[in-house]
Input
Amino acid sequence: MELEFLLAIILILNIVFAVTIVFFERRNPTAALAWLVVLFSLPTVGFVLYLLFGQNYTRQRMFVVKEQEDRRFLQEVFLEQLREFVDRRYRFATHEAEEFRETIVLLLQNNRAFLTEKNRIDLYTRGEDKFDALFAAIRGARHHIHLEYFIVNNDDLGRAVVRALAEKAREGVEVRLLFDAMGTRAGGGSRKAFSELTDAGGKIGVFFPSVYRVNYRNHRKIAVIDGTVGFIGGFNIGDDYLGKGPLGPWRDTAFRIAGQAVKLLQLRFFLDWHYVTGEYPGPRPLYFPDPGDPGTTPVQIVSGGPDTRWNPIKEGYIKLINSARESVYIQTPYFVPDESVTDALRLAALSGVDVRVMIPCKPDHPFVYWATLSFVGDLLDAGVRAYTYDAGFLHAKTIVVDGKAGSVGSANWDVRSFRLNFEANAFFYDAAVGAELARAFEEDLAVSTEITPERYRARSRWVRAKESVSRLFSPLG
Output
């Protein structure tokens, strides 16, 4: 009798969920239909899944204030640069920026992604190199250190970072560390793990402490030191990212940036820090110093998440693909695109563009991995070439187009990064940086295996079954 009563309650709640989905998932009918099917074909399972992954209406109410505040801070600088673009008064620093003008304007208008120039970019593909550079920047800090990461594990690397931050805090340097509650707690990084830092005077912020909710996580990986040096990319903080975890050697990508773009990384950090803690240190010169002229690379810092009206990083990816004339190289651990991204890649390949997608050879999330293989397989007949990276786990989230422009950041090529998580990417327009990123991709081809149409069609029935089931649930995020 009690079981029947419980099932009746679940059915009633599922009906309420269904009504909510119909009214508040209008922008994504595929996901809405998938949720309705799950809720009524598997009522109990669907109820649990919706509590964990769904509730778009709740998302809209939770993050509407964040969206309004972010726009308020960015509005003034956005309007001035947009007027210059529209009036054709703006003179780009590089030929590549002029060539990708439409991409720049798109990201400026739909994300307030101000174009910065006079940047220097250093590319890292190995964890050892990236963290050596980060530790060097931390040791050299004089005024402040701001770190924002999805994961800060309580392991050797995580403790070394906390120890280095605590040392600087004891020297009087302002230290702020922002991490996602779910991502960090999974690695043992509870508040207690950061006691050395807080005891030394450093501050921590915990993003979205509701750890039972899988969606709406802060997936960004940002570091800013003294307002002059910034880092952005795919590396979290933990031993895994040095190749010391169960997945073995780790292949990722990150940028170290010096120049005007660091101001926007700083602003991105402040907006997220303010949302979590209520503190906004303000636009004081010590946080936004004159960066000088360290380089010539144009960069836009683009943010996406549940608090954005559109999907700016995804739309930036699509615009880059549509602008390609020769090549599109993509690396991602998770490839679960929607139809707009799939169509863009298919049309580019059918138009004669050399489109290549590289994914890992091993899964860290099996359902996502099998769905990834399914979506990659769909593109092979259109001429897209796909590869599995065999020298470890591929975690890079990159695109480079024609060796001239591209993006590096935290956003994967899947619906979770496009719609459900908070992400940040650096879009660049510079042939020197593009050539370096393309060269890294081509070097990875030497340790990769191509997924040819023949090889894909020869996969076993068991693999086909896993792909089908995983793909069925992919619209749910």
